[in-house]
Amino acid sequence: MTVHFFNLFTTASYAKESPDSIFAKYAVLLDGDTGRVLYGKNENEKAPMASTTKIMTCIIALEYAKENIFCTTSAYAASMPDVQLNAVKGEIFSINDLLYSLMLKSHNDTAVIIAENIALHYLYDGDDKDSMSPETNTDEQSRMLVLLFASAMNRKAAELGCHDTYFITPNGLDSEDENGIHSTTARDLATIMAYCIKNQDFLNITQSKNHTFTSSLKTSDNNLKTYNSYSVSNSNAFLDMYDNVISGKTGFTGDAGYCYVCAYRCDGRTFIVALMACGWPNNKTYKWKDTRKLLDYARNTYYPSEIISKDMQPDDIIVENGNPSVLHLKIENNNGFTALLSHDDKVNVSIHMQTLSAPVISGETVGEVCAYINNEKIYSLPITAANTIKEKNYVFYLKQLLKRLIFIDKS
């Protein structure tokens, strides 16, 4: 049984025409809170994403390294091509410092240092773990650790529903193996960013203007001495070009072209823009023009509207052969639901109930309330039984018969 509470919901008329002349070959504008695509251009097609990869590298490191571990540079990490921190074999950094190098300056060697050390500390459980160290590892051992880290990146992508994403490297350099190329879609990339900005440490790092830090080397007697000092500044110029942009990451490779992903938040609205193949040299500024156009469109078109209220209450239903026959319903964890709508978005809120017969136990899930925008399901909550309904079986009818006989005797 399905009960429709309302079939059409419209906001005020403030919609603008969709942007139709962006440079990027692959693009998406996402509602960062619901994951709904507000604008797309080839948004589900796979393509290389260059250093925008590093948003996943960063969030994996933040989630695994709950303490400020120290990371040692391998010969393999030190061999990564530009852009580089130019770390040397054996150089030691704190993971916190490396994350600033990763996200502010997009250093490719830093990404591999992070990947190797996170893999060794938290992911690798081999018999030879105690004998492994990035300082002494062979290139083969380093690649094994990097692949282990990449597998964690792919697991996280799958958890987020990004099934068209495949990570091979932690730095986003063009790569290919027997399973495919290092790639994602604009929609998946935006979905990953929407997840990353829920982490305050991620925001603190990507919003920083600059960061200074030092590294260490081991001495011959196994003590640490300061080796070098570094200063990195934020290369995400769009932070200063558009108000209320809270995070972002650029990228470029020969295969990927210029790429960019960013998050905007203001007045109860969160927009994510992801662009891939947004020009090649000398068209470095195309990504800023596209991002501005998509955010202007979003701000002028989509506004928060309540779709499910906190006090929404489903009607009671009758359960066949039930004792009592009336089942009261409860929407679980209903804190209300608000989504971004344009004036021509069609909203339908429906209750979908299972076919019920007694017995029904209090707390049992018996249906769900679903919100649809333009026929796409974007939100749901379970509906549970608020009371227990027993079955009217032969015992029930026997008791009813006995009660009637007793009443007749007394009369």
Automatic annotation (TrEMBL):
PANTHER family: D-ALANYL-D-ALANINE CARBOXYPEPTIDASE, D-ALANYL-D-ALANINE CARBOXYPEPTIDASE DACB. GO terms for molecular function: carboxypeptidase activity. Coiled coil: none annotated. Belongs to the peptidase S11 family. InterPro entries: Beta-lactam/transpept-like, Peniciliin-bd_prot_C_sf, Peptidase_S11, Peptidase_S11_C, Peptidase_S11_C_sf, Peptidase_S11_N. Transmembrane segments: none annotated. Pfam families: PBP5_C, Peptidase_S11. This is serine-type D-Ala-D-Ala carboxypeptidase. Gene3D superfamilies: D-Ala-D-Ala carboxypeptidase, C-terminal domain, DD-peptidase/beta-lactamase superfamily.
